[in-house]
Amino acid sequence: MTSSSETTPVTAAILVIGDEILSGRTKDKNIGYIAEYLTNIGIDLREVRVVPDIQDEIVQALNALRARYTYVFTTGGIGPTHDDITADSVAVAFGVSIDHDPRAIAMLSERFPADQLNEARLRMARIPAGADLIANSVSKAPGFNIGNVYVMAGVPSIMQAMLDVVAPTLKTGVRMLSETVRAGMREGDIGTALAQVAKAHPEVSIGSYPFFSEAGPDTNIVVRSRDPEKLAVARAAVQAMIDSERARLAV
Question: pLDDT tens-digit profile of 122-151?
């Protein structure tokens, strides 16, 4: 990985492709994994879109996202069936041709004998011109990278293997640090005071997340910053606010 300066954050978007996600038939397990993975290596995930297996919609979304962010990661739609149209759509988005790639065929041949490389399986070897392949240690069918777009499988185990291959090649920024403070109070009890803390620390992200514990309603306050000193100061301010509000409510 190569590092970027703190003043120029590295950003990313995820484009999830597939009717099965939108219908609810398949529950997405990739967004959270990719989001955490990118956060841990210093890349800010800024947007996620889910689109159906419709070429025009894939092309439109992909072109919008790749113009806006450092990287775009797509999942889904690179399998052997007729509705796997991601590779074709990416080719259209980039204005390049697409054909069977000898490198991809060689990868598939590591798993399938020649008499099993039928027309359906060979669809997985169709790669846009100029793209680099992303190795797939799980099932051999590769993903690919063209420009700032990384096209990966929708199957979580395969996507994760591909992401491990891709990650060392990515430009990364300063990792986002976070601290969690448990309030021991309801979100509404601290909302006004928390807003004042957030206003006093504009360079730090402060969010509140309500939940229910065995003791009843509670709230976690999450403080995030790339600067450890600013993080520590803001966290201390949050803790002081919580202590003050507890004392006020106890009166």
Answer: 999 999 999 999 999 999 999 999 999 999
- Alpha-carbon gap, residue 148 to 154, rounded angstroms: 19
Distance (Å, whole) CA 66 – CA 73: 9
Give the tens place of pLDDT for each residue, 5-58.
455 789 999 999 999 999 999 999 999 999 999 999 999 999 999 999 999 999
pTM equals 0.85
Backbone angles phi, psi at 30, to 5 degrees: -95, -30
Residue 72 bridge partners (DSSP): 13, 149
* Burial class (CB within 10 angstroms; exposed 0-12, middle 13-18, buried 19+) of 66: buried
Pairing between β-strand 126-128 and β-strand 71-75 as defined by DSSP bridges:
unpaired
- Residue 26 identity: T
Find out whether 32 and 200 touch, Cβ atoms under 8 Å: no
